[in-house]
Design brief:
There is one protein chain. This protein has 115 residues and is mainly β. 0% of the residues lie in helices and 52% in strands. It has no helices and 11 strands. Strands 2, 4, 5, 6, 9, 10 and 11 form a 7-stranded mixed beta sheet that branches. A 4-stranded antiparallel beta sheet has the order 1-3-8-7, with no helix packed on it. The N and C termini lie far apart (40 Å).
Length: 115
């Protein structure tokens, strides 16, 4: 099974930026569709962005124009660049690797946007 470890979360003011990283190991990272999801307190986990093995990206409406997902297969890493952050972006952000019949999840990293 692929193992995923997120990093880069923290506390930022509204309008600020963060760059999240997800390091994968234990499997062939480059063949998987990768995604970023988030979960706020009392809410279900929701899609933020995905990127497939060919580099095709997909974004939630809330992320379009502000967030950018990318991957560096040589480093087994997927990134989420987050700009113009809003308080409603506050959540635990999770990295995911979508296999054919199973999705592997990272442990999550906290992002808090507050003034």
């Amino acid at each position: 099974q692929v193992q995923l470890v997120e990093s880069g979360g923290g506390l930022v003011q509204p309008g600020g930026s963060l760059r999240l990283s997800c390091l994968g190991s234990g499997s062939i990272f480059s063949i998987y569709t990768m995604g970023w999801y988030r979960q706020a307190p009392g809410k279900q986990r929701e899609l933020v962005a995905t990127i497939d093995s060919g580099g095709i990206t997909n974004y939630a409406d809330s992320a379009k124009g502000r967030f950018t997902i990318s991957r560096d297969n040589a480093k087994n890493t997927v990134y989420l660049q987050m700009n113009s952050l809003k308080p409603e972006d506050t959540a635990v952000y999770y990295c995911a690797a979508h296999r054919t019949y199973y999705t592997s999840w990272g442990q999550g990293t906290q992002v808090t946007v507050s003034s």
